[in-house]
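Appendix C reproduces, verbatim, an entry submitted by the partner laboratory led by Prof. M.T., so that reviewers can inspect both the input and the predicted structure.
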Amino acid sequence: MCSKWINVAIAKIEADYQRSADTHLIKLDLPQLSGIDIYLKDESTHPTGSLKHRLARSLFLYGLCNGWINQDTTIIESSSGSTAVSEAYFSRLLGLPFIAVMPKSTAKTKIQQIEFYGGKCHFVDASDQIYAESERLAKELNGHYMDQFTYAERATDWRGNNNIADSIFNQMECEPHPIPNWIVMSPGTGGTSATIGRYIRFQQLTTQLCVVDPENSVFYDYYKTGNKQLTLDVGGKIEGIGRPRVEPSFIAGVVDDMMQVPDAASIATIKWLQQLIGRKTGASTGTNLFGALLLASKMQQAGETGSIVTLICDSGERYLDTYYNPEWIKQHIGCFDHYKKMLEEFSETGVLVQ
């Protein structure tokens, strides 16, 4: 193992981090809510355009410090897109080959971005095949399988050290309700929800963590039943979140509440948000925000005040051929008029009734 190369590699990643500004915290203009503020942590502004930039950086540092990655290592990851984009970026930074194992249904723009950073895409027919195929490739190529679904919850320092939770609470300090009533997060690996939940407890905060799960994902049912053996044969339509199996990085014990959000509601919400902020976001942001709006509506009806924080996971520009394509929506999601009407009524009343 070449310790000099590892030192240089870590220094490159740390220098890249120092060149990157923190992401913005956007306050939504929602006058229909009285004494309740909703914020979006905009993770789309990272160099690779998504929340997964933080995870990829942590996974590389974890792998380097554990001695799993050296100057000749091929990096392999199982990913539906965004993590692979970010890991391809860091692989190029270190001069390492990168292969993403992903379903054939992954958005074309994400594939193009992986290839832009010098990565290669290895396709499988179904999302539940990515794990075994990644392990096979790593063994065949004597490479390192990053395995975001196992290591996401342990690669990030959840006690502080400028993780996403630390950043959120620092940015909230000057707001009318600086300690959020709720932080809302959707699970993909489960790493971000684990980091936020652990941080809240370690800092002895009153904030509660609500995790929102899309359709065709097992996390919600696992939270309710405790059955780790749950699996699904069909993958979800909301890229980047939800899984067909209970991932090792999903820590149910840090979650205060969970909701299951219909895919049609996620699509309706990103259309609604686009009218509010003038920007397209990915559908996982719609899942997050729909959950936040439901919580805000309950607070409003109970006469409570406070704040809720959730995330913009990535930009909608990656999904022009899917979530912003009427034909794709018609074929894969169906009609979302019911949720569109719900959101229109929320805009008038501050109440979201399912």
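The chain has a mean pLDDT of 94. Additional entries are available on request from the coordinating office.
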